[in-house]
Design a protein that fits this description.
homodimer, 88 residues, alpha+beta, Arc Repressor Mutant, subunit A, two-stranded antiparallel sheet, 3 helices, 56% helix, 18% strand, globular, DNA-binding
DNA sequence: CAAATATACCTAAGATTCTTTGGTATACAA
DNA sequence: TTGTATACCAAAGAATCTTAGGTATATTTG
């Protein structure tokens, strides 16, 4: 995907609950790229540029690990605050 | 509860997965107090001081709201991470 | 009994990350 | 022609966390 598309997809798929702004996203993408977790491919659409980002093998490992961390964190939070998500 | 107790309880109840350090906790407690969400009661245990924190009514409202926000965020994350891709 | 660990408070520098607010430019609809 | 959407980006300020200390008492252990 490309940057702007990510902001729109996050907004759409999260039903407007998560607003990932460009000011937060672009610096993050650049850092991930600098860390070797993403590669970019510049594509011209007419006269407008897009930068498509793709996960590197290291990026795939990293995201898998991060998601595991996230679920581990959720389990821990569950133990602390108790309860379960409502209306799911 | 008091500050140090919170760090220990979080560590214990989260099975060591969440480490809430004092450097993060104390400034946060002081801010919550300044914002009127907590009140403190100083108690001497022998020659050692403890500061017990209690939620104010505003604090109770705030924590309830925050937990709701948290679950709302989780649902949104579920849609994105475990989400439904358009294609593939 | 001396030294290490645990309890209990705290601050401050540095790093990281997010929000806000701008900028540039093309495409299209009102 | 003005506004909205697309598409990239940077920088200042704010918020938060990590790290690394400081002070002091209490208890455990070698």
């Amino acid at each position: 995907m490309y940057g702007y598309e990510i902001t729109q997809q996050v907004k759409e798929q999260s039903e407007g609950k998560i607003l990932l702004t460009e000011g937060a996203l672009y610096p993050a993408l650049h850092k991930l790229e600098a860390d070797g977790l993403l590669t970019t491919e510049r594509v011209m659409i007419g006269k407008r540029m897009r930068k498509y980002y793709t996960l590197t093998p290291a990026g795939n490992t990293a995201i898998t690990d991060k998601i595991k961390e996230f679920y581990s964190f959720l389990e821990a939070m569950q133990l602390i605050i108790g309860g379960k998500p409502k209306n799911t």
